[in-house]
Write a structure and sequence with these properties.
Layout (H helix, E strand, L loop, with lengths): L3 E2 L9 E4 L1 H10 L7 E5 L5 E8 L4 E8 L10 E6 L3 H14 L3 E5 L7 H5 L2 H18 L6 E5 L15 E10 L1 H8 L6 E5 L7 H9 L3 E3 L8 H16 L9 H11 L1
Length: about 260
Amino acid sequence: MNYFLSSVPLALGQELALDGEEARHITSVRRIRTGETLALQGPDLKRFLVRVTAVRPRLAVRVESPLVLPPLPRVKVTLFQGAVKPKAAETIVQKATELGVDRVVFFQAAHSPTALAELTHAHHLERIQRIAWEACKQCGRAEPPRLDTLAALAPCLEPSSGATPLRWLFHPGGLGPAWALANSAGTQTPVHLLVGPEGGFLPEEVALAHQAGYISMGLGGFTLRAETAAIAAATLAIFGLDDKTHSPPPAEDIEKLTRLVL
């Protein structure tokens, strides 16, 4: 269920007026009418079902009941992405948000000599943050992944302070996904994904990653765009490694599905 943002914390029974871009979107794009309900989330990340009590002259709502937030994936994924052009970075952040990636880090790679400087421009950072929040509101996630930048590959390879993560480097000629899933499914350890920019990694960068414990992974025989590789890598890690996706559904769900089919 998608939701909208409130600039103030919400409480049961509270009545409030909404202004700004969110109110305009609710009334002009969604065309919500008096009496209808929508989901609203406050800055404290608490979400409620609210009922519209007025649309004109100002949008007003009454807070009716709390809503349960969708759970984040149990596998904590950090995506280290070689810096790409802003448009590609926007796509990566949007899809990483929807998939449940915990952290996205853009770093300076050999084949991205100017991309990081473009990404760190205030205009682009603000736009990427806005895109991440819009993705959250669309998919139901409470807040975006952490977004960071690093000036080089080396910091991506440093040992972690907590649990030792699985480390996958996505590079042509690496091991297939089936091997990774067979050897790692159900893991509760963090996962670090290393994806190159357009043009991929230099052999020297691959060698450094291997020395730091990264295992080369392949994503088929085609040459992928950086954003396609990032999305595929995140999908593989989040949905392939979470043991919930490998467990059979409850018996009652199977029975309901059987009745629908028959």
